[in-house]
Amino acid sequence: MPSTSQPIAVLLMAMGGPDCLENVEPFLLDVRGGRPTPPELVAEIQARYRATGGKSPAVGMTMSVAKKLEARLNESGSGRYRAYAGFRHWHPFIKDVLTQVLRDDPEHIVGLCMAPQQSSLSTGAYQKKVEEAQAFMNDHHSISYVGSWNRHPKLIAAIVDNIQQGLNKFPPAARPNVTVLFTAHSVPERIVAMNDPYPDEVKGTVAAVTAFLGGQPAAFAYQSQGRSSEQWLGPTVEATIDQLACAGQRHVLVAPIGFLCDHVETLYDIDIELKQLASGRGIQLERIAMLNDSSAFIETLADVLAAHESSLSIPS
To answer: How far is CA 263 from CA 22, 181, 291, in A?
Structure first.
């Protein structure tokens, strides 16, 4: 691909979230594909956001990541890269951000999902949103998508560091026996029949991290199962906490390796709901810090993008 004065556009894509309590219902409407949400469920979700600051921090955090990543990619002074943040279920939507990207007439667009583990139901859905927008606008700009980075060395090192720091939340004598409970967002069980890579992708991240933890006890569970009639992947975090309590474990450090930044699934599902459940079982439960817009995460993304560009032979 010949070098030109046109920029390389990096489109960061994430789920998004409501920016105020009043927008919880329209956000859920988009998540549910236009199906109305029962009023009692809207009220319940609003209560969760009310308890964690009144809005999702994920949108602002992803935009901060885009800004810092652009600065990191352009630190040589070339100004070659432009980073954008678009969301699947809330403003600014992917299709609207893509319009802005196209106005800048990039040489190439790189789509990067803010999820290191690949799945047709998550990362695949983001790619579909871009393809739909391109088709609607009859756009033919060159675009590629970053694949799995679930075992990227810098990602694993950052998670390991956060786990080691998280262990300091427990009494010194207890730390060697604290169970590190890895979690990832559950998805419907039907993906197993589809041969979707997600379960293996998640297990790959867990295996890569545990390889650096020595003999630290570890477990894995899926969290935040959806409210639907179909079966979702397990085991659940709730059942796993019960099992750990029955086994006499009194200290658990949750490591949500399926998440990159704070949002309701960490701030409420873990920090409030799961912590209360664990406390009732006699367990001190803590959580590691999310990567958010940390320098370690920005360096990880820069490295992931460099490898992707190298595979495409895009001149830097």
So the answer is: 17, 18, 12
DSSP state letter for 21: G
For CATH 3.40.50.1400, the residue range(s) in the chain are: 8-148+295-312, 153-287
- Return the CATH architecture of domain 8-148+295-312: 3-Layer(aba) Sandwich (3.40)
Beta bridge partners of 144: 110
Determine the straight-line distance between the first and last CA of the chain, rounded to whole angstroms.
11
- Is 24:263 a contact under the CB 8 Å cutoff? no
Query: Could you name the CATH architecture of 153-287?
Result: 3-Layer(aba) Sandwich (3.40)
Q: Are 22 and 119 in contact (CB under 8 A)?
A: no
Instruction: Check residue 46 and give left, alpha or beta (phi > 0: left; psi -120 to 50: alpha).
Output: alpha
Decide: pTM greater than 0.70: yes
Per-residue pLDDT of the chain (316 residues; tens, 9 = 90+): 334 578 999 999 999 999 999 999 999 999 999 999 999 999 999 999 999 999 999 999 999 999 999 999 999 888 899 999 999 999 999 999 999 999 999 999 999 999 999 999 888 999 999 999 999 999 999 999 999 999 999 999 999 999 999 999 999 999 999 999 999 999 999 998 899 999 999 999 999 999 999 999 999 999 999 887 889 999 999 999 999 999 999 999 999 999 999 999 999 999 999 999 999 999 999 999 999 999 999 999 999 999 999 888 665 5
